[in-house]
């Protein structure tokens, strides 16, 4: 039989372990994303993506997950591919592809290439001057980095949903997977 002190002691140890695990999961958040294959990968011409911060809109066709509220329904996703590294070796990690729907309320986000034009409210929330382009939701001023899609300001509960660049050939950048959580609901 476990006494009161033993129970409290074990509970505190379990809470400490859970807290440590939560910190580790948060730190590795980007690596824990699960992706789902697109039925047909999106091809973006590489010639359009040779300069850092060059962007290109795309539309991806997907299918809702079998576990979604409306399973196996077709879904069209607006996305943007951005070259996040200077010209050089063309590998998937040189590009970022995100869904252009804000995870807060589904508004379409805009790419702001000149961060000096951002509203003061966003700059104050970020807490430091921005030098790189950012995605901004015009509805409630959530802001997201271009390099990772991570939320840096505003009420959005998370970063932008991501696509995975699966291949870069001599002629095209291939976007072949989408973050699984995006396929659970329709905006």
Question: Cα distance, first to last residue?
Answer: 52 Å
Q: Kindly state the number of beta strands.
A: 10
Count of the domains: 2
Rg calc? 20 Å
Q: Which percent range describes the beta-strand content?
A: 25-35%
CATH class descriptor name of the largest domain: Mainly Beta
Range of helix content: 10-25%
Q: Specify the biggest β-sheet.
A: 6 strands, antiparallel
Shape: globular
**Strand line-up across the major sheet:** 1-10-9-4-3-2
Indicate the structural class.
alpha+beta
Question: Could you list the spans in which at least 5 consecutive residues all have pLDDT below 50?
Answer: 22-30
CATH structural architecture of the largest domain: 3-layer Sandwich
Q: Fill in the CATH topology of the largest domain.
A: Rieske Iron-sulfur Protein
| Strand/helix succession | HEEEEEHEEEEE
Tally of alpha and pi helices: 2
Average pLDDT, all residues: 88
Can you say what the CATH homologous superfamily of the largest domain is?
Answer: Rieske [2Fe-2S] iron-sulphur domain
């Amino acid at each position: 039989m476990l006494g009161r002190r033993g129970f409290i002691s074990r509970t505190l140890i379990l809470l400490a372990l859970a807290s440590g695990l939560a910190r580790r999961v948060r730190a590795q958040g980007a690596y824990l994303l699960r992706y789902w294959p697109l039925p047909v990968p999106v091809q973006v011409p590489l010639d359009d993506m040779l300069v850092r911060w060059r962007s290109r809109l795309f539309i991806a066709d997907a299918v809702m997950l079998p576990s979604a509220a409306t399973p196996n329904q077709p879904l069209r996703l607006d996305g943007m591919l951005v070259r996040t590294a200077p010209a050089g070796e063309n590998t998937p990690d040189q590009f970022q592809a995100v869904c252009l729907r804000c995870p807060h309320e589904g508004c379409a986000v805009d790419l702001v290439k000149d961060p000096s034009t951002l509203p003061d409210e966003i700059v104050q929330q970020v807490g430091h001057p921005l030098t790189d382009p950012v995605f901004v939701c015009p509805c409630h001023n959530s802001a997201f980095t271009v390099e990772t899609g991570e939320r840096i300001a505003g009420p959005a509960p998370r970063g932008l949903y991501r696509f995975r660049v699966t291949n870069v050939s001599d002629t095209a950048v291939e976007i072949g997977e989408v973050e699984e959580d995006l396929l659970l609901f329709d905006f």
